[in-house]
Amino acid sequence: MRSAFAAALLSLPLAALAGAHDAASFRRHSGAVRSSRRSSTNYTLVDKYVGEDFLNEWQFYDQADPTGGNVNYVSQSAAESAGLAYVDCNNVTVLAVDDTSSVASGGNRDSVRISSPKAYNSGLFIGDFGAMPTGCGVWPAFWLVSTVGPWPAGGEVDIIEGVNLATQNQVTIHTNNTCMLTSNSTATASVINNDCQSYNGHDSGCAYLQDSTETFGAPFNQAGGGVFALQWTSSAFSFFYFPRDSIPADITSETPDPSSWGEPTADFTVSGCDMASSFFEQAIVFDTTICGDWAGPSYPSTCPGSCSSIVANATNFADARWKINSVIVYQ
């Protein structure tokens, strides 16, 4: 996660169309394989998370926010009782920020953070989302982080992340090793930092900013959401994004072939470090914090007033919710 340093069919989920590690205590920070080299891989579905799976299998984190956000991450029972974590009538999992309670300016508002029951060392990760949290002061992320601490040992991979009223998704990786993003990438997004090594005072990671202004926040939601995919191999991380009306048939049929998807949105081939020793035992995480190390300092660029004062405005968080159709892992 980035630090303050770095500034009808359309709505149907893929599942409808297709027919013992805890990452929660680890800090979320933030501050090229060419198309011709991406060969076809026969992926096998190993984990599919849909509906109640996120409530029954994933782990709820209820400790202080490591990024200094104005949130109380609540337990599963508290989240379900308050309507912050539930499955709707379409089998969509909703993870929300409290938008009804009275909270003092500068106080903490209830929110949800969960992590997957398993950790991974490679694979193809495909998330289908109907909506993501948006709003002033809001900082959502869908990411992977090593269950082996301390951060950033084992690395971190941010698939979806942004703050406030941003409309472009940022993709970032962090490592404790000396890793540099190579310059031969064919990615369609724009590089905003090429140094992946992260440590205190230097934790922005290497990152891309997606060019499309419908990859994050309100425009993403208004377009019916879409699919984000991460292909993690022994040599690179490749990221892909597909709007709702452009999802490849092999994804909806659960027989994905990334070699047929064209150029990646973001392509992390790194030099100066070993992938296997830099990224390992990664759990999948969803969270939504408020203000904190990134959304707080960036707040004045897109939002009125102050970030601490917006916490008191419950209606500001009416759209601060994930609508998760599915997360599927292939290997």
Automatic annotation (TrEMBL):
Pfam families, alphabetically?
GH16_XgeA
KW Plastid (keyword) present: no
Q: Which InterPro entries match?
A: Beta-glucanase-like, ConA-like_dom_sf, Glycosyl_Hydrlase_16
The protein's GO terms of the molecular function aspect are:
hydrolase activity, hydrolyzing O-glycosyl compounds
Q: What start and end residues bound the annotated signal peptide?
A: 1-20
What are the GO BP annotations of this UniProt entry? glucan catabolic process
Task: Give the GH16 domain ranges.
Answer: 36-303
State the protein's name: Probable glycosidase
Checking Gene3D superfamilies in the record gives: 2.60.120.200
| Keywords, sorted A to Z | Glycosidase, Hydrolase, Signal
